[in-house]
Amino acid sequence: MRHREDGMTSTSLKELAQQFQKVGIENSWRELRHLMAFITGESYEAYFFGTASDLNTAQHNQLRELANRRLTGEPLSKIVEKREFWGLNFKVTKDTLDPRADSETLVQAVTNTFSDQTQSLKIVDFGTGTGCLLISLLKEYPNALGVAIDKSEAALNIAKENARYLGVDKRMTFCLSNWAESLDGLFDVIISNPPYIGIHESLEANVKNYDPVSALFAGEDGLDAYRALLGQIGKLCHPNTKIFFEIGQGQKAAVQEIASQHKFVLVDVYKDLAGIERVLQLRIV
Known about the structure:
The protein has 285 residues and is an alpha/beta fold. It is elongated and about 65 Å long. It folds into 2 domains: 63 residues, no CATH class; 200 residues, Rossmann fold (3-Layer(aba) Sandwich). The protein is 37% helix and 19% strand. It contains 11 helices and 9 strands. Helix 2 packs across helix 4 and helix 6 runs parallel beside helix 7. A hairpin with a 5-residue loop joins strand 8 and strand 9.
């Protein structure tokens, strides 16, 4: 990147990178390039290859402000309002849970189960947030239709925006509902990454302080969302409906027990890249 006297100098950029490193931010230069791209509207690649325009004084000051937010622990994704998931870029805000790589395990589980990508699947996603799970699946299955459920209108609005940006909005319906309370009909695939953290469990500050509480915590033991969902979704299932739930570490037995109480049985378990049991596949008896 070229530098002007009234803009950001290479020395001041190095100083910011060093500050990032001191507080334990890995890939400090990568994050700075993302911040500069966000400010100027140019691509990350333009800053990586040094072909981007200079930052002027106003942009320099804005970079300092954003860098200070990052230094206090705010996630980069919340600052630039963007996070990659399943090779796609999703808008994120304070009203949505950040998509995480662990959740790609659920998308992979569905694609492993339904190998024919031409199928006309009907999919419902409970607690859709950014819509990342459902939208990713609709990109994989061009003939599929999806219903995105969330009790947060703000989150649903972000999911709508992501669906439009990624070109699947014509195949999606959005429903403001507390789980399945406002939903009828039968579905081929039911998915959810519900909140599954107990209210007394400790969390990293960058999660606890910047992700919506309602998307993180689910009662004393972190299982309230599974109790609610499994108590409601039976009416949405036909005999061949496949259900995929993301779970927290060590929750398999507890969720399986709740499922059995509502006449669901465990079909398969999928592990994430760290080898942790992350997704349960269920079916109704």
